[in-house]
Amino acid sequence: AAAILLGAIVYPSWQYAYHFTHLGCAGPRESLQAQGYASDPVIFDTPRGYQLRGWLTQGDRFPEVVIIALPGASGNTWYALPNAAILAGAGYSTLVYEHRSCADPALLHSGGYLEADDLVSAAQYLRTRPDIKHVGVLGLSAGGTAALLAAAKEQDIEAVVAAGGFSSLKEDVLPTQVTYSPIDWIARRLVLAFVGFQVGTAPRNISPVAHIEQISPRPILLIYGEYEANHGEALYAAAGDPKDLWIVPGVGHGGYEVAFPDEYEKRIVSFFQSVFD
Questions:
Q1: Which of 15, 46, 55, 91 is the 20 to 30 A CA-CA neighbour of 106?
Q2: Contact 17/198 with Cβ under 8 angstroms?
Q3: What angle do CA 199, 204, 206 make, to 5 degrees?
Protein backbone atom coordinates (compact mmCIF):
# COMPACT_ATOMS: atom_id res chain seq x y z
CA ALA A 1 0.00 0.00 0.00
CA ALA A 2 2.85 2.36 0.82
CA ALA A 3 4.50 1.63 -2.53
CA ILE A 4 1.25 2.26 -4.37
CA LEU A 5 0.74 5.53 -2.50
CA LEU A 6 4.32 6.62 -3.23
CA GLY A 7 3.92 5.77 -6.90
CA ALA A 8 0.67 7.72 -7.03
CA ILE A 9 2.59 10.80 -5.86
CA VAL A 10 5.93 10.39 -7.65
CA TYR A 11 4.68 9.54 -11.13
CA PRO A 12 2.26 12.51 -11.51
CA SER A 13 4.92 14.83 -10.11
CA TRP A 14 7.46 13.59 -12.64
CA GLN A 15 4.91 13.91 -15.42
CA TYR A 16 4.06 17.48 -14.41
CA ALA A 17 7.73 18.45 -14.33
CA TYR A 18 8.35 16.73 -17.65
CA HIS A 19 5.47 18.58 -19.27
CA PHE A 20 6.80 21.88 -17.89
CA THR A 21 10.25 21.35 -19.37
CA HIS A 22 9.04 19.80 -22.65
CA LEU A 23 6.42 22.29 -23.80
CA GLY A 24 7.86 22.33 -27.32
CA CYS A 25 7.97 25.22 -29.75
CA ALA A 26 4.75 27.27 -29.86
CA GLY A 27 3.84 29.34 -32.89
CA PRO A 28 5.56 30.37 -36.12
CA ARG A 29 8.76 32.36 -36.58
CA GLU A 30 7.46 35.61 -38.00
CA SER A 31 8.54 39.26 -38.06
CA LEU A 32 6.92 42.69 -38.04
CA GLN A 33 7.17 42.76 -41.83
CA ALA A 34 3.45 42.08 -42.25
CA GLN A 35 2.71 45.10 -40.05
CA GLY A 36 4.69 47.41 -42.31
CA TYR A 37 8.05 47.38 -40.54
CA ALA A 38 11.03 46.25 -42.60
CA SER A 39 12.71 43.38 -40.73
CA ASP A 40 16.09 41.80 -41.39
CA PRO A 41 16.83 38.18 -40.46
CA VAL A 42 19.57 37.67 -37.89
CA ILE A 43 21.27 34.68 -36.35
CA PHE A 44 23.51 34.53 -33.31
CA ASP A 45 25.49 31.91 -31.41
CA THR A 46 24.95 30.78 -27.83
CA PRO A 47 27.60 29.38 -25.47
CA ARG A 48 25.72 26.07 -25.32
CA GLY A 49 26.50 25.38 -28.97
CA TYR A 50 23.26 26.14 -30.78
CA GLN A 51 22.23 29.15 -32.82
CA LEU A 52 19.06 31.20 -32.58
CA ARG A 53 17.30 32.94 -35.46
CA GLY A 54 15.33 36.13 -35.24
CA TRP A 55 14.36 39.43 -36.83
CA LEU A 56 15.83 42.88 -36.30
CA THR A 57 13.53 45.79 -37.13
CA GLN A 58 15.19 49.19 -37.35
CA GLY A 59 13.38 52.05 -35.61
CA ASP A 60 12.71 55.30 -37.40
CA ARG A 61 13.33 57.58 -34.39
CA PHE A 62 15.85 55.68 -32.26
CA PRO A 63 17.53 53.19 -34.61
CA GLU A 64 20.54 52.82 -32.30
CA VAL A 65 18.33 51.63 -29.41
CA VAL A 66 17.16 48.00 -29.62
CA ILE A 67 14.50 46.61 -27.31
CA ILE A 68 14.46 42.82 -27.25
CA ALA A 69 10.88 41.54 -26.97
CA LEU A 70 10.49 38.12 -25.35
CA PRO A 71 7.26 36.08 -25.31
CA GLY A 72 6.08 33.61 -22.67
CA ALA A 73 6.88 29.93 -22.26
CA SER A 74 8.40 28.31 -25.38
CA GLY A 75 6.91 31.02 -27.59
CA ASN A 76 8.29 31.60 -31.05
CA THR A 77 8.72 35.12 -32.40
CA TRP A 78 5.03 35.40 -33.35
CA TYR A 79 4.07 35.72 -29.68
CA ALA A 80 6.50 38.60 -29.15
CA LEU A 81 5.15 40.68 -32.04
CA PRO A 82 2.39 42.59 -30.15
CA ASN A 83 4.95 44.04 -27.75
CA ALA A 84 7.49 44.54 -30.53
CA ALA A 85 4.86 46.48 -32.51
CA ILE A 86 4.30 48.84 -29.57
CA LEU A 87 8.01 49.57 -29.42
CA ALA A 88 8.41 49.87 -33.18
CA GLY A 89 5.49 52.29 -33.24
CA ALA A 90 7.35 54.44 -30.72
CA GLY A 91 10.37 54.51 -33.02
CA TYR A 92 12.65 51.97 -31.34
CA SER A 93 14.51 49.19 -33.07
CA THR A 94 13.37 45.76 -31.93
CA LEU A 95 14.73 42.23 -31.87
CA VAL A 96 12.58 39.12 -31.66
CA TYR A 97 14.10 35.65 -31.76
CA GLU A 98 13.00 32.05 -31.49
CA HIS A 99 12.80 30.07 -28.27
CA ARG A 100 15.54 27.50 -27.80
CA SER A 101 13.03 24.66 -28.28
CA CYS A 102 12.18 26.11 -31.70
CA ALA A 103 15.84 25.96 -32.70
CA ASP A 104 16.10 22.34 -31.52
CA PRO A 105 13.16 20.27 -30.21
CA ALA A 106 15.52 18.51 -27.82
CA LEU A 107 16.20 21.76 -25.95
CA LEU A 108 14.13 22.35 -22.83
CA HIS A 109 11.88 25.09 -21.58
CA SER A 110 13.06 26.11 -18.12
CA GLY A 111 10.73 28.94 -17.14
CA GLY A 112 13.42 31.52 -17.88
CA TYR A 113 16.58 30.05 -16.35
CA LEU A 114 18.23 28.64 -19.48
CA GLU A 115 16.46 31.26 -21.58
CA ALA A 116 18.35 33.95 -19.65
CA ASP A 117 21.63 32.70 -21.13
CA ASP A 118 20.10 32.95 -24.60
CA LEU A 119 19.10 36.54 -23.85
CA VAL A 120 22.62 37.37 -22.70
CA SER A 121 23.88 36.03 -26.04
CA ALA A 122 21.34 38.17 -27.91
CA ALA A 123 22.41 41.31 -26.04
CA GLN A 124 26.08 40.57 -26.64
CA TYR A 125 25.41 40.00 -30.33
CA LEU A 126 23.65 43.36 -30.61
CA ARG A 127 26.53 45.17 -28.94
CA THR A 128 28.95 43.78 -31.55
CA ARG A 129 27.05 45.72 -34.22
CA PRO A 130 28.39 49.25 -34.83
CA ASP A 131 24.85 50.54 -35.50
CA ILE A 132 23.60 49.57 -32.01
CA LYS A 133 24.43 51.66 -28.94
CA HIS A 134 21.82 50.66 -26.36
CA VAL A 135 19.88 47.50 -25.45
CA GLY A 136 16.73 47.09 -23.38
CA VAL A 137 14.38 44.14 -22.79
CA LEU A 138 10.63 43.66 -22.54
CA GLY A 139 9.73 40.15 -21.39
CA LEU A 140 6.35 38.54 -20.80
CA SER A 141 5.81 35.71 -18.31
CA ALA A 142 8.77 33.30 -18.65
CA GLY A 143 10.30 35.96 -20.87
CA GLY A 144 10.06 38.35 -17.94
CA THR A 145 11.83 35.84 -15.72
CA ALA A 146 14.57 35.47 -18.34
CA ALA A 147 14.86 39.25 -18.64
CA LEU A 148 15.46 39.71 -14.92
CA LEU A 149 17.91 36.82 -14.62
CA ALA A 150 19.85 37.93 -17.69
CA ALA A 151 20.02 41.59 -16.69
CA ALA A 152 21.35 40.59 -13.28
CA LYS A 153 24.49 39.22 -14.95
CA GLU A 154 24.77 41.22 -18.20
CA GLN A 155 25.52 44.94 -17.94
CA ASP A 156 24.77 45.49 -21.64
CA ILE A 157 21.06 45.15 -20.79
CA GLU A 158 20.38 48.71 -19.71
CA ALA A 159 16.66 48.64 -18.89
CA VAL A 160 14.11 45.90 -18.15
CA VAL A 161 10.34 45.59 -18.34
CA ALA A 162 9.21 42.28 -16.82
CA ALA A 163 5.51 41.46 -17.07
CA GLY A 164 4.19 38.50 -15.12
CA GLY A 165 7.27 36.36 -14.55
CA PHE A 166 7.36 34.46 -11.27
CA SER A 167 9.44 35.73 -8.36
CA SER A 168 10.88 32.24 -7.95
CA LEU A 169 10.04 28.78 -9.22
CA LYS A 170 9.51 27.64 -5.63
CA GLU A 171 6.96 30.39 -4.96
CA ASP A 172 5.20 29.53 -8.22
CA VAL A 173 4.93 25.81 -7.48
CA LEU A 174 4.66 25.98 -3.68
CA PRO A 175 3.16 29.38 -2.73
CA THR A 176 3.86 30.24 0.87
CA GLN A 177 0.41 31.72 1.52
CA VAL A 178 -1.38 28.44 0.77
CA THR A 179 -2.05 25.61 3.23
CA TYR A 180 -1.38 22.13 1.83
CA SER A 181 -2.27 18.60 2.75
CA PRO A 182 0.80 16.43 3.43
CA ILE A 183 0.40 14.58 0.13
CA ASP A 184 0.01 17.80 -1.87
CA TRP A 185 3.06 19.32 -0.18
CA ILE A 186 5.18 16.26 -0.98
CA ALA A 187 3.98 16.24 -4.58
CA ARG A 188 4.86 19.89 -5.08
CA ARG A 189 8.29 19.44 -3.53
CA LEU A 190 8.87 16.57 -5.91
CA VAL A 191 7.84 18.75 -8.87
CA LEU A 192 10.46 21.29 -7.85
CA ALA A 193 13.12 18.61 -7.50
CA PHE A 194 12.26 17.00 -10.84
CA VAL A 195 12.26 20.33 -12.71
CA GLY A 196 15.65 21.13 -11.23
CA PHE A 197 16.95 17.70 -12.20
CA GLN A 198 15.77 18.04 -15.79
CA VAL A 199 17.02 21.61 -16.18
CA GLY A 200 20.31 20.77 -14.53
CA THR A 201 20.29 23.17 -11.60
CA ALA A 202 18.97 23.44 -8.06
CA PRO A 203 15.44 24.91 -8.00
CA ARG A 204 16.69 27.73 -5.76
CA ASN A 205 18.70 29.05 -8.72
CA ILE A 206 15.53 29.62 -10.78
CA SER A 207 14.78 32.67 -8.68
CA PRO A 208 14.74 36.24 -10.03
CA VAL A 209 13.95 37.58 -6.56
CA ALA A 210 17.36 36.37 -5.37
CA HIS A 211 19.20 38.27 -8.12
CA ILE A 212 17.09 41.30 -9.03
CA GLU A 213 19.03 43.64 -6.73
CA GLN A 214 22.08 43.17 -8.97
CA ILE A 215 20.32 45.03 -11.80
CA SER A 216 20.43 48.36 -9.93
CA PRO A 217 21.18 51.16 -10.84
CA ARG A 218 19.69 50.14 -14.19
CA PRO A 219 15.91 50.79 -14.17
CA ILE A 220 13.18 48.15 -13.89
CA LEU A 221 9.44 48.29 -14.60
CA LEU A 222 7.42 45.38 -13.19
CA ILE A 223 3.90 44.70 -14.51
CA TYR A 224 1.69 42.18 -12.69
CA GLY A 225 -1.99 41.38 -12.52
CA GLU A 226 -3.93 41.90 -9.32
CA TYR A 227 -4.29 38.14 -8.80
CA GLU A 228 -0.57 37.45 -9.16
CA ALA A 229 0.55 40.58 -7.31
CA ASN A 230 2.48 38.62 -4.68
CA HIS A 231 5.19 37.87 -7.25
CA GLY A 232 5.45 41.47 -8.40
CA GLU A 233 5.46 42.82 -4.86
CA ALA A 234 8.22 40.40 -3.80
CA LEU A 235 10.36 41.40 -6.77
CA TYR A 236 9.74 45.09 -6.19
CA ALA A 237 10.73 44.80 -2.52
CA ALA A 238 13.98 43.00 -3.43
CA ALA A 239 14.95 45.29 -6.33
CA GLY A 240 17.22 48.28 -6.00
CA ASP A 241 16.39 51.71 -7.34
CA PRO A 242 15.23 52.93 -9.79
CA LYS A 243 12.18 50.70 -9.99
CA ASP A 244 8.46 50.87 -10.62
CA LEU A 245 5.57 48.45 -10.15
CA TRP A 246 2.19 48.52 -11.89
CA ILE A 247 -0.41 46.17 -10.43
CA VAL A 248 -3.07 45.80 -13.12
CA PRO A 249 -6.51 45.72 -11.45
CA GLY A 250 -8.85 42.80 -12.09
CA VAL A 251 -6.29 40.79 -14.07
CA GLY A 252 -4.60 37.47 -13.44
CA HIS A 253 -1.58 36.22 -15.36
CA GLY A 254 -1.24 37.96 -18.72
CA GLY A 255 -3.88 39.95 -20.51
CA TYR A 256 -2.62 43.31 -19.23
CA GLU A 257 -2.66 44.89 -22.67
CA VAL A 258 -6.15 43.49 -23.31
CA ALA A 259 -7.64 44.91 -20.10
CA PHE A 260 -5.91 48.31 -20.34
CA PRO A 261 -4.37 48.64 -23.81
CA ASP A 262 -3.76 52.39 -23.72
CA GLU A 263 -2.30 52.37 -20.21
CA TYR A 264 -0.16 49.34 -20.99
CA GLU A 265 1.36 50.98 -24.06
CA LYS A 266 1.79 54.33 -22.32
CA ARG A 267 3.64 52.86 -19.35
CA ILE A 268 6.01 50.80 -21.49
CA VAL A 269 6.81 53.57 -23.96
CA SER A 270 7.21 56.17 -21.18
CA PHE A 271 9.56 53.86 -19.31
CA PHE A 272 11.92 53.38 -22.25
CA GLN A 273 11.68 57.07 -23.15
CA SER A 274 12.81 57.97 -19.63
CA VAL A 275 15.87 55.76 -20.12
CA PHE A 276 16.89 56.27 -23.73
CA ASP A 277 15.46 59.57 -25.01
A1: 55
A2: yes
A3: 50
pLDDT of residue 9: 86
pTM of the complete model:
0.95
| Confidence at residue 169, expressed as pLDDT on a 0 to 100 scale | 97
The answer to whether residue 1 scores a pLDDT higher than 80 is no
